[in-house]
Amino acid sequence: MKQTIFLPVLAVAALIASPIVADDDHENHEIIEKVMKEGLKGDESPLAKVLEGEASKSEIKDLDELIKTMEGTKAPVGDQAGYDEKVAELIAAIGAVAGGATDTPALNRLDTASDCKACHGDHKPKKEKK
Ligand code: HEC
Asked: Of 23, 28, 32, 115, which one has the greatest count of Cβ atoms within 10 A?
């Protein structure tokens, strides 16, 4: 008798749980995409301006806050620990610049930490997912 009650409950729980998982993945993608498109992509991106020493203090701060949103995101592909390390280094590097270290070593660190190919090669899905 107990089982006939328990099984439908499980089935309902599974139905409720699955869209939540999908939403998480979607949200994860949205966060990364926003950082990429609004912060990193292109010759005129906030990142490019910061690296060229042309960004204002508030532009550096905005980029810092934007990049920080990547903390805790899931690697779409590849090793999560390796991804976490790259994200942590990127956050630390922009954080240092935002904290006032705008000298060449600090900018070089940010340049290395934001290496597009190094991260994409390991963690960006090969096929464009919609
Ligand atoms: C620390 C890791 C990391 C670094 C550094 C990085 N990216 Fe990305 N980028 C990603 C990941 C992960 C994705 C895939 C996101 C997804 O599909 O959910 C991505 C996707 C993108 C996309 C596609 C966004 C979309 O979904 O439309 C662009 C554009 C992009 N990156 C630009 C850049 C540029 C330009 C640089 C270098 C200046 C860069 N990225 C550096 C991790 C990184």
From this structure: 32
Does 73 sit in the ligand 1 pocket, CB within 6 Å? no
Q: Which two tokens stand for residue 27?
A: 């949200």
> Rounded distance, CA 13 to CA 79, Å?
30
Q: Is 31 exposed, middle or buried (0-12, 13-18, 19+ CB in 10 A)?
A: middle
If one counts every other C-beta atom within 10 angstroms of the C-beta of residue 94, the result is 27
Helices (H) and strands (E) in the chain, counts: 6, 0
Judge whether residue 108 has pLDDT over 60.
yes
Tell me how far the alpha carbon of residue 33 lies from the centroid of ligand 1, in angstroms. Answer: 7
Q: Could you tell me the pTM of the whole model?
A: 0.86
C-alpha triplet 69, 74, 80: angle, nearest 5°: 120
> For 91-102, how does the pLDDT look when each residue is reduced to its tens digit (9 = 90+)?
999 999 999 999
